[in-house]
Automatic annotation (TrEMBL):
Keywords assigned by UniProt, alphabetized: Endoplasmic reticulum, Heme, Iron, Membrane, Metal-binding, Microsome, Monooxygenase, Oxidoreductase, Signal
Main location (coarse class): endoplasmic reticulum
EC class: oxidoreductase
Compartments where located: Endoplasmic reticulum membrane; Microsome membrane
Residues engaged in binding heme: C438
PROSITE patterns: CYTOCHROME_P450
Identification of the protein by name: unspecific monooxygenase
Gene3D superfamilies: Cytochrome P450 (1.10.630.10)
Enzyme Commission no: 1.14.14.1
The family this protein is said to belong to: Belongs to the cytochrome P450 family.
Signal peptide (UniProt feature, chain positions): 1-25
Organism superkingdom: Eukaryota
Upper taxonomic lineage: Eukaryota, Metazoa, Chordata, Craniata, Vertebrata
Length: 493
């Protein structure tokens, strides 16, 4: 027999044995499509629309199934019941952060642990600190709501400068949430024309676009591509390095003017904690972790909110009857002159429903960042080994057709009862759920309500095309759902 053929057969046998051992050697993993040697199930997955692939797999294998990305198994949870059982009922066991190759490479390269991608005690301490600091921000001075209202007024003024001419709202809508994060982290907001501010925004926008691309889904399955092949993943690492250096300069400025009795922002609070723990050899409060945590807050708090705003306005253009009803409620509750405040939300059930429906419909993050089980866990008669990656399909909950009739339709009625009052839903998991839910959820909710209300209070939205011809299909559906580009006119009310 040809030696080459023998070699190929031997290698194939070893790979098949390795896959068998992974599947059956230590645990009894859930069922799933048979993986191919080396590449696993990557050919079974549409990397341009992973959510659709997961939905099809769930029909064949049930709400809990296994996929192989490369040679490593990943357990997928699909549907409300399975996700709640794992993330809420067994929250601790499913609270690990799974492997995300490109970020793992960045963390290794820069010697850091970040808030979103850390595990164990590091994650617990950084998360607890970040939550406490965001909740208590202001230390008796200005509240976060004050800052959101100020930024909403600045946003409205920037939109006025368009002079009712056709414009792409992407940049302006990105400035508002980014500036809010800047005010929390750095104390000061920036003018929308500040070049440093624009540069930072561009880095985050570019990274999100790359992370949502089919190429990055392939890189996540085959990390060797990140280490040894050229590609857009290298741009991500360069952008992370740029942001790190920018934040480092800000940290140095804060260190020179720090008053431990008068913290001004998130960086000051972190520096004070570093000083308090300077003799603790095991402390998680280091300069590198500060840079990584600030980077996470930037990335999570900027692009997600700005993309939701951009997608939201597109949906309001598509459905002018919804927009008209919202503006009628705004006129009735707030009027045209007073600035909206968070307290108004209780008297504005339709606006509240519209904001929730925008988030539900756009399905911004179809699949969460990978979780991991923190120990060997028996789950629904399966045995999942410690460290196994877990993928959570948020799409399967937000588009559940029993909880939300006609889930592919944009309908604020999904969040209203028969009397027109706002109706909460346990299936609203736009910010995920459990131990790893979004740290900035309350801030994002506040921003979306106040920014959208302020825009609709002051402007009539005019589409450049007939609403029935507006296409709301996302142009990318990887890490996030990205809306198509569009233009509109902001007509002063």
């Amino acid at each position: 027999m040809d030696p080459v053929v023998v070699l190929v057969l031997c290698l194939s046998s070893l790979l098949l044995f390795s896959l068998w051992k992974q599947r059956y050697g230590k645990g009894k993993l859930p069922p799933g499509p048979t993986p191919l040697p080396i590449i696993g199930n990557i050919l079974h997955v549409d990397v341009k629309d992973i959510s659709s692939s997961l939905r099809n797999f769930s029909k064949a294998y049930g709400p809990v199934f296994t996929l192989y990305f490369g040679m490593k198994p990943t357990v997928v949870l699909h549907g409300y019941e399975a996700i709640k059982e794992a993330l809420v009922d067994l929250g601790d066991e499913f609270s690990g952060r799974g492997h995300f190759p490109i970020i793992a490479r960045a963390n290794k390269e820069f010697g850091r642990c970040s808030l979103v991608f850390s595990n164990g005690q590091t994650w617990k301490e950084l998360r607890r600190f970040s939550l406490m600091t965001l909740r208590n921000f202001g230390m008796g001075k200005r509240s976060i709501e004050d800052r959101v209202q100020e930024e909403a007024r600045c946003l409205v003024e920037e939109l006025r400068k368009t002079n009712a001419s056709p414009c792409d709202p992407t940049f302006i809508l990105g400035c508002a949430p980014c500036n809010l994060i800047c005010s929390i982290i750095f104390q000061n907001r920036f003018d929308y024309t500040d070049q440093s501010f624009i540069n930072i925004m561009e880095k985050f926008t570019e990274n999100l676009s790359i992370l949502s691309s089919p190429w990055m889904q392939v890189c996540n399955a085959f990390p060797i591509l990140i280490d040894y092949f050229p590609g857009s993943h290298n741009k991500i690492l360069n952008n992370i390095a740029y942001t790190k250096n920018y934040v480092l300069e800000k940290v140095k400025e804060h260190q020179e003017t720090l008053d431990i009795n008068n913290p001004r922002d998130f960086i000051d609070c972190f520096l004070i904690r570093m000083e308090q723990e300077k003799h603790n050899q095991q402390t998680q409060f280091t300069t590198e972790n500060l840079l990584a945590t600030v980077g996470d807050l930037f990335a999570a708090g900027t692009e997600t909110t700005s993309t939701t705003l951009r997608y939201g306005l597109l949906l309001l253009l598509k459905h002018p009857e919804v927009t008209a009803k919202v503006q009628e409620e705004i006129d009735h509750v707030i009027g045209r002159h007073r600035s909206p405040c968070l307290q108004d939300k209780g008297s504005m059930p339709y606006m509240d429903a519209v904001v929730h429906e925008i988030q539900r419909y756009i399905d911004l993050i179809p699949i969460t960042m990978p979780h991991a089980v923190t120990c060997d866990i028996k789950f629904r008669n399966y045995l999942i080994p410690e460290g196994t990656n877990i993928l959570i399909s948020l799409s399967s909950v937000l588009h559940d057709n029993k909880e939300f009739p006609n889930p592919e339709m944009f309908d604020p009625g999904h969040f209203l009862d028969e009397s027109g009052n706002f109706k909460k839903s346990d299936y609203f998991m736009a910010f995920s759920t459990g131990r790893r839910n979004c740290v900035g959820e309350s801030l994002a909710r506040m921003e979306l309500f106040l920014f959208l209300t302020a825009i609709l209070q002051k402007f009539t939205l005019k589409s450049l095309v007939d609403p029935k011809h507006i296409d709301t299909t996302p142009v990318a559906n990887g890490l996030t759902s990205v809306p198509p580009s569009y233009q509109l006119c902001f007509i002063p009310a």
